[in-house]
Amino acid sequence: MNQEEARVRDELAALYRLVAHFRMTDLIDTHISARVPGDKPHFLINRYGVLFHEMRPQDLVKIDLDGNPVDPGDAESQVVNAAGFTIHSAVHAARHDLACVVHTHTADGIAVACQRDGLLPITQHALRFYKRLGYHDYQGIALDLEERESLVASLGPHKAMILRNHGLLAAGSSVAEAFVNIYYLERACQAQVKAQSCGAPLVLPSEAVCERTAGQYERPTAPIYTQRVWSAARRLLEPDQETPT
Question: Which of 6, 123, 139, 184 lies 20 to 30 angstroms, CA to CA, from 234?
């Protein structure tokens, strides 16, 4: 294993534990993947059966775009979620600009995914994704490899997507950016569900304000902000900071 792969393994394992810290897990289901740096189309994904808060670099399985394990090992240590492979291999094969992909099944994410209008532009968090969010119609558990084509088409040029009746997907050009995108997409869904539960009329900003705000999130300093968030979040994983399980 070279230093670049070791770095990505360390970051991806940390991301799994942060997703657990922020309670975005669903037992052993859902998945996060990261492209392995280099010329070969390999990516890392969780060994099926490991809880997210337990994830360590050695629990990540390196596979190719056909789902074959790359490194030697016993069969049990290299089992990956079949639906996870379908979803993540689709994105990694088609979107070489995306290094990391996160898929979650949170209660609020699923709630918004069940709504006809999807994510509403009612909060500052939601406006990060204004007209920058794909939608994918539910086709059953993602075990059919033929669904990969429609998944990629639904994602389009975006870095986030709502899987209708299913959950959320967010990606990034780095592990750090994928974390920021899933964190704020989840928070936007949480806020929407809470706002709707009040039963009061919702206030929507004008289209011009929505577009302006979305553009502000794409300012040149955005990568600096992303790295600052990632560095701060990783400190939550220090032994005296981690949430007891």
Answer: 123
pLDDT in tens, 73-89: 777 888 999 999 999 99
Q: What is the residue-wise DSSP string for 117-186?
A: T-S-S-SHHHHTTTT--EEE---SSS--TTHHHHHHHHHTT-SEEEETTTEEEEEESSHHHHHHHHHHHH
Q: Which amino acid is at 191?
A: A
Could you please state the CATH topology (level 3) that the domain comprising 3-233 is classified under: L-fuculose-1-phosphate Aldolase (3.40.225)
Given a cut of 90, is residue 39 above it in pLDDT?
no
- Best CA proximity match to 89, nearest among 137, 132, 42: 42
List of residues 6+ apart from 6 with CB closer than 8 A: 57
What confidence tens digit (pLDDT) does each residue in 43-67 have?
Answer: 999 999 999 999 999 999 999 999 9
Residue labelled with tokens 């999130």? 217
- What are the residues whose beta carbons fall under 8 Å from the beta carbon of 91, sequence distance 6 or more? 98, 101, 151, 152, 155, 169, 171
CB 39 within 8 A of CB 107: no
Instruction: Read off the pLDDT of residues 167-225 as tens digits, 9 standing for 90 and up.
Output: 999 999 999 999 999 999 999 999 999 999 999 999 999 999 999 999 999 999 999 99
